[in-house]
Give the backbone structure.
Amino acid sequence: MTVAFVESAALRVRESPWVPSIGRPETVLDRVVSGVGTTFATWAFAASLMPSLLPRTAWLQGIVSGVTVAVGYGIGAGAHGLWTYLGIPGVRGRARSVLLTGLVGLGLVAAVLSGWRLVGWQNEIRDMFGMPPTSPMIWPVIVLVTVLIAATGVLLARLLRLVTRTAVSWLARHLPPRLAVVLGVGVLGVLCWGLWTGVIVQGFFAGANAIFAAQDRTGSESTDRPTAPERSGTAGSLSRWEDLGSYGRRFVDGGPTIADLEAVNGPGARMPIRVYAGLKSASTAQGRAELVLAELERTGAFDREVLVVATTTGMGFLDPRGTDPLEYLWNGDTAIAGVQYSHLPSWISLLADQEAVVETSRAVFETVRARWAELPEDDRPALYLYGLSLGSMGVESVLSSVSIVNEPVDGALMVGPPFLNAMHSRLEEGRDGGSPASLPLYEDGRTVRFTDEEGGLERGGATWGPTRLAYLQHASDPVVFFSTDLAFDEPEWLADGQRGADVSPAMGWFPVLTMWQVLVDMPSAGEVPDGYGHMYSSTANLRAWAAVTRAPGWTSAREAAISAALAPS
């Protein structure tokens, strides 16, 4: 009886589409690739060429198209396999071949038409951004990369299918066939998910951390270091030059000099204070916060007019387009403090370091604020917060903390806030009626205001203050406007009358596809000219700082003079 059961089970398994069959009638196409999968793949390729927020290089477009084609093929082949497994009748014989050929042909026509439009919409955005045009010569690279990526994806999927079939066949020797299929697929799904989350992803983060930690030592042996006592890493500093990290060393060694400031503002400039603690400066976030406070005390920062607690991005980067304008604006009577919390660059840190940025931001702010609060109110600097990209998440974590209520800051500037920022999302959702999603107005501008390259901080009927919070964002910045909701909900920032001037009129919304398109725009968001994407110009930062800090003597002439000094030489 047992032998009969096994033989019966084996027969049923052989008849299942999960196990390769011998002698099953198939077309030549079916033996090589899935006809339904190929149909879906051609339409997926056409969809991958639709307009998005930013122009793309040929190789990046090839990656986008290759992944899209592989997914499209998988969806088509998987749907056909499920259809067959459920025993639902389908089109067969010559009718099937004609139908598939027609659908594939239409998909190829759509791909050609989309490809023809690709160069057009890319050049439309490039012209808007002030970038040189591209040409149809990008197509060989796009096609080659697409084929390589798609083929790799399909081969990996087939390898997984082979492993699944092998597991199901083994289980079917001991279990009923359909139970074997369910268990085999389920167990392998769990194992693959565990491998992805526990090994591949964590291994990627660990490997990236090791690679970028080595890069973080760049410049540590340099003898060309700052000598001014107002800077960390100098002879009298408590924070060693070698421990500051690559971006920390750039920060303390950068910025305008007294001569630079006086050339714009006239005599009386002071050397701007810049203090910093790297990951190696102390073993904990609290230790680094206390070191920064000691540096602020050493340099006399609490005697300055403006004190900024700045949250860095990723590897410890503080954007000179955000820090230099403040120092020009106040003629050097400023102090800026920064602390590194990661070795990873921003695009990886955005996923891996959310807890670290919150912990570090709060530790540094609370430590500095406690000392600042001890000083007489009329004899202490105005206290501000600053953060670019993931750094703005750190600023939001401080603004949302209970302890800030009794001693509120004077203001904050948050630039390019990423889609993960909870406070930014709430403000956008609760914006005043009639204000665009790309540049909201909230509570008539009473506390929070939004701006872009063209302005916006002047909007609002309410008096702005005493605490002034400002968001600087571009409508073309995918880091700001990406959301998983894009998969099935059309965003308001793409609607007529809502989209920003730097978003192509050709861009539309399509389910799932738009989410994928905006997601893959993020890696190139920093590869566009200032004023677009995730690149925020010195002038836009200057205007925002002038409004947030209530800079004295602010005029259009002064803006022009400082902007000229900040312009790249």
Remarks:
- Strands lie at 273-277, 306-311, 334-339, 382-388, 411-415, 448-451, 468-472.
- The mean pLDDT is 85.
- The chain has two domains: 2-211, 216-416+536-566.
